[in-house]
């Protein structure tokens, strides 16, 4: 029977490989996010299905960026209907509907999380954002994109200004190693990649004197007060903060 130590070692090895493989891409992604902060613009984040877990990780989260605008549609969340969520992200035209509320512009950046990287919703988000002059950070798996059936005119890898590769194998599962069936890694790796970007943004931003807008936990002394200023600034332009 597998031990917790074996699983932990496997995950640690995956994260180490991901960090090494994405060193240049993480720096490039941090460059884009720093540009957003300098321009007092927004980082738009999006995903579908279980990739929405990564979107939640970017939004209104202790230690996370405050200048984040999450793109969302209820039908994309499996908790609102598992089978229908799969159908929804394969529906062409949904990206335009979601962007009708507010779309990224030339000073903004769109971050799209999608492990398969081939369904119409995430791909069309990238296409529409790039038409408007926004850069795109694609968080995906090159191996999964290569193995998945094409369902749109392009892929997330092709549309990304910067591509962060989760190195997740097709099917997402990681255990047992010789024939993976369970222990999916994409959620863990997506959060790790985003945190690598945030760490660089903080270090490099503060070194140049930028005020990096970061949320504080509401459960630490002074957290509510620190967050109140950010809510006052971003609440009007990010409706889901209200």
Topology:
Elements: H1 4-21, H2 23-38, E1 43-47, H3 52-58, E2 68-70, H4 82-89, H5 94-99, E3 109-113, H6 120-131, E4 135-140, H7 142-147, H8 156-159, E5 162-165, H9 186-207, H10 223-234
Parallel strand pairs: 1-2, 1-3, 3-4, 4-5
Helix pairs in contact: 1-2, 1-9, 2-9, 3-9
Summarize the structure.
The protein is α/β, with parallel strands linked by helices and 242 residues long. It has ten helices and five strands, in the order ααβαβααβαβααβαα. It has helices spanning 4-21, 23-38, 52-58, 82-89, 94-99, 120-131, 142-147, 156-159, 186-207, 223-234; strands at 43-47, 68-70, 109-113, 135-140, 162-165.
Question: What are the key terms here?
Answer:
242 residues; alpha/beta; Rossmann fold; 10 helices; 46% helix; globular
Describe the fold and architecture.
46% of the residues lie in helices and 10% in strands. With 242 residues, it is an alpha/beta fold. The chain has one domain (16-241): Glucose-6-phosphate isomerase like protein, domain 1 (Rossmann fold, 3-Layer(aba) Sandwich). Strands 2-1-3-4-5 form a five-stranded parallel beta sheet, sandwiched between helices. Helix 3 links the parallel strand 1 (43-47) and strand 2 (68-70). The protein starts with a helix and ends in an 8-residue tail after the last helix. The relative contact order is 0.17.
In CATH, the architecture is 3-Layer(aba) Sandwich
Query: What is the 3D form?
Result: globular
- Total helix count? 10
Largest sheet: 5 strands, parallel
Query: What is the domain tally?
Result: 1
CATH level-3 fold name: Rossmann fold
Question: What fraction of residues sit in β-strands?
Answer: 5-15%
Overall average residue pLDDT? 95
CATH secondary-structure class:
Alpha Beta
CATH superfamily label: Glucose-6-phosphate isomerase like protein, domain 1
Which stretches are poorly predicted, pLDDT < 50 over at least 5 residues? Answer: none
Q: Report the C-alpha radius of gyration, rounded.
A: 18 Å
Structural class: alpha/beta
Q: What string gives the helices and strands in order?
A: HHEHEHHEHEHHEHH
Q: Span between N and C termini?
A: 48 Å
Helix content class: 40-55%
What's the total number of strands? 5
